[in-house]
């Protein structure tokens, strides 16, 4: 009986255990999701999962889903002939997010740059200039960020993409740019750091190494202005990418690297130079460089059509420049003999409503890299070196990366393009003169005034002749009025008589234009210098805090319709008032109604110029105001000279006309005769017709 009860207890216990483990437990505690389900989670949830301790993560979730599926599918299959055996497949480790500063924000330190790196992607977050001269136009307490000026941009400079690794990370909703890289122990210092990342399957290891050495010769002392303007090494950040094969099989790898992102576009409403993609191609001789550029508008248009620009020629440098600053990447390896970059593609990183305000960048793609199996020596890894120039646009500084030609004094379309060669020649000496005066302790505003005085002094012989011509015109007024009465109704006769009178008195109506025409190249050269020179950026004078921008006396309470003005600029208004006053004083009185009409048209043009000049740099308005005041004072002085020392009356001589003048006079007379005959022919024809008609009636 006892045995029967014991057997019954055993049977019932087994039945309960079987039912509990087979039916109740699966219902109450379902099995964890498979790796394929993890891919459907949000990226942030995945990142949180990775941040948890490793023991909470299922091992099969740390390797790509496709690897698991293949392993399961091939479980009953015979092994492949040459399987890729991972030496030691590591787990995907998580590392804390870190920000690391290279260089210094202190201008007293022997660094020109402050580079902030982020372990998220091992990329460059920002690059600041610690020179006190380079402060933000919006906030003078903030330094200029040559890279990473817009924190909202998703792309980061030096982000790397490798398809073989990103495909594995995509299963976890991550990428090489979104995951934190390991800071290699012992590599961190104010002058450099190295980030490291190993692919989830343990087959590839990457290392990004950054180095910002102290500027040679500056250790222990504060850099001077001259040193900052002449030592290009201080604006170079060295970095490299190392790709290491961890398998026993050879493999081929290709990477893409993000170029400079977030180059600042300052005062975009009032500048003529916006962001451009700059590329310098190495010519076959290995030394010469051919440059090219693409505007933000062109980059945006090309990308909108689905055909972004791709350059495949060997490059010396590539990057982005704006009005005053540039950020350019230079591959260190010789791209003719040892090419590392196969192509460069322009891209839009932030499309603006106005196309030319868009933020643009570039992406570099490497050549295919052949890696030998692990353990075969240096061939199992490859390192590509780069230099990143981040600084002001000074030709001799950017020459360190072969980009001296990026400092182009470009202001866009120029209606006086035929003056272009002369303007280019004048810009550099004009800047040298302004900088030389400033080096003597003279404010840039005063330097512009002195420059104007120098120019007007050189033109004084011409303005003297202009004053003499105006005086002769005034003396000829009675005779001109007599001619107008004599040739009333005969415009051609009046014109010939006036020219004859001008010739007798040695008066040239165009003589007064020469001072204006000769100043035009100087005007354009100064306009360019003010528009692109980083030295004149934020140069203050009186109430003006930036001579390279409009004076902006105060904010308007409204936006001017059609013109979009939001600030009151006083200097352009003063400039136009002085232009009109100068014209009233300097121009001779009109000789006839036609000339009076010309003067009225000139007044209308002055108003139009006021609209065009409203947003020109304040330094240019200072030039015009000084020039106008000088011109009026000069005319007053010449008039007083004529009163104090009256000139001898001009002897009217009958000049023997030259051969050209004689020919021209004969041509005019022949044209007049033909015109007279043409006028008489219709009347003659009409008389003939009338006679014929009378004859026919008589018959």
From TrEMBL:
Q: Which InterPro entries match?
A: Membr_insert_YidC (IPR019998), Membr_insert_YidC_N (IPR028053), YidC/ALB3/OXA1/COX18 (IPR001708), YidC/Oxa/ALB_C (IPR028055), YidC_ALB_C (IPR047196), YidC_periplasmic_sf (IPR038221)
Q: From which domain of life does this come? A: Bacteria
UniProt keyword Transmembrane, yes or no: yes
GO MF annotations for this entry?
membrane insertase activity
NCBIfam families per record: yidC_oxa1_cterm
- Functional description taken from the UniProt entry: Required for the insertion and/or proper folding and/or complex formation of integral membrane proteins into the membrane. Involved in integration of membrane proteins that insert both dependently and independently of the Sec translocase complex, as well as at least some lipoproteins. Aids folding of multispanning membrane proteins.
**Protein known as:** Membrane protein insertase YidC
Organism field: Planctopirus ephydatiae
Taxonomic path: Bacteria, Pseudomonadati, Planctomycetota, Planctomycetia, Planctomycetales
